[in-house]
Please model this.
Amino acid sequence: MRAILYTRAMGQIATPNPTSATVSVTLRINGEERNLQLDPRTTLLDALREQLALSGSKKGCDQGQCGACTVHINGQRVLACLSLAIAHQHDEITTIEGLADGGELHPMQAAFIECDGFQCGYCTPGQIMSAVAMLEEAARQIPSHADELSLEEIRERMSGNICRCGAYPNIVEAIRHAQTIGKKGRS
Model:
């Protein structure tokens, strides 16, 4: 059975070439090297979800607009649906599954639970991954020089992550809570 794809931009039906070549790709995910055979056009999100069964990163819009697929690549937040897997062979990739330290939740994960920063939970992994990176960016004074993140600044920095349930007040509260925990841990 051959898959048939409909391309919206062209309004045409395309049939993938069954003889298309795969390439060997080695990805370092959550501290572990993983060897895969992939079509070179495979997105990082599809490699994570379909090849490695790391389903925490969600496929929301598949267009880079919702943030549900946010992962960290070399410590920076990246939308996995817009990134080709083959482009990240020498990078350190962290998914929501790799955020916890063994059995201990990351402070942001714990804050989301404590502050009820989720409803349906679909966007939660992307929200958490984005929030962790956002606090690290703020600590390095990128792009703002504010010591304390205001509610407005948190909302602005998190604007690339959409929650269709409207849990934003609790998400912002969870981020503020995790920021407080992080400051206590550093002092």
Notes: Residues 1-9 have pLDDT under 50 and may be disordered. The beta strands are 5-7, 12-14, 23-29, 32-38, 70-73, 76-79, 92-94. The radius of gyration is 18 Å. The first strand starts at residue 5 and ends at 7.
